[in-house]
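Quick review question:
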């Protein structure tokens, strides 16, 4: 009994430490705001040691990856798509003049807490599902480097019944998660630099689409059978699938709006 009690206390202590690390990772600092897109954002980010280290470690890797697709770091737009079930983050890229994105690289997600389904309240440990954008760059994160996602968006706020839907959701390193998407430190350096290059190229809005799974017809049928007792969740996923199908079909960034009921609507 003493051993069990001690183990529970140790486990609780570890959870508190992990929570504090995430809180520290997202604590607002002046670095998060940054200059406007295209106004030497890269130069501003180079002031920070971890960004300089990432450039030493990864600049050549990114240049080769971009070059293979006929792209350049100084003329870059990106879009991120994450799949919770598959634990994959796909990074799409194009030049600012092109209309359609093409997949550049896929990254494994090594930690993402919670289950399939959207985030609806503070403390539920859920990774959000929906259509977001990067709203913060944190080059001094306690989880190495981190990119903030603008959860809760208008859809989340209209769908939740909670007084506090939560917030401060990031893509970051260190392979720990309390509602965030986490990669290794080595991989977040690449993702972070791609985002910095894109912002420095003038991209004001960097989309981040988070899906519960790859929303193919076969996968939808499987999950409709597995979750048939949750009609509200299935309706939500069908709404996400409309956007998924459109983006996968033509690779064009979605024009997203939100209805009064909190459903996503997709323009031409």
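Suggested answer, residue by residue:
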């Amino acid at each position: 009994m003493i051993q069990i009690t001690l183990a529970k206390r140790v486990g609780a202590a570890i959870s508190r430490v992990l929570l504090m690390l995430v809180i520290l990772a997202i604590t607002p600092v002046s670095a998060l705001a940054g200059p406007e897109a295209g106004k030497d954002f890269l130069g501003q980010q180079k002031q920070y040691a971890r960004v300089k280290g990432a450039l030493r470690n990864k600049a050549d890797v990114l240049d080769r990856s971009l070059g293979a697709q006929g792209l350049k770091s100084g003329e870059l737009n990106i879009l991120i798509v994450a799949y919770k079930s598959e634990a994959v983050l796909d990074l799409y890229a194009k030049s600012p003049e092109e209309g359609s994105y093409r997949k550049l690289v896929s990254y494994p997600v090594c930690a993402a807490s919670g289950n399939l389904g959207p985030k609806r309240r503070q403390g539920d440990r859920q990774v959000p599902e929906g259509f977001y954008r990067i709203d913060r760059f944190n080059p001094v994160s306690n989880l190495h480097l981190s990119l903030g996602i603008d959860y809760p968006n208008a859809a989340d706020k209209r769908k939740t019944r909670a007084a506090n839907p939560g917030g401060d959701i990031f893509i970051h390193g260190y392979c720990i998660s309390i509602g965030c998407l986490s990669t290794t430190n080595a991989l977040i350096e690449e993702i972070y630099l791609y985002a910095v290059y894109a912002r420095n190229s003038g991209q004001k809005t960097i989309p981040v689409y988070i899906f519960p799974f790859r929303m193919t017809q076969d996968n939808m049928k499987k999950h409709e059978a597995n979750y048939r007792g949750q009609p509200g969740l299935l309706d939500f996923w069908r709404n996400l699938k409309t956007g998924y199908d459109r983006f996968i079909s033509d690779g064009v960034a979605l024009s997203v709006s939100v209805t009064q009921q909190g459903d996503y609507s997709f323009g031409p």
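Why it works: The radius of gyration is 19 Å. Helices lie at 2-26, 30-33, 41-45, 49-68, 154-159, 185-200, 217-226, 231-250.
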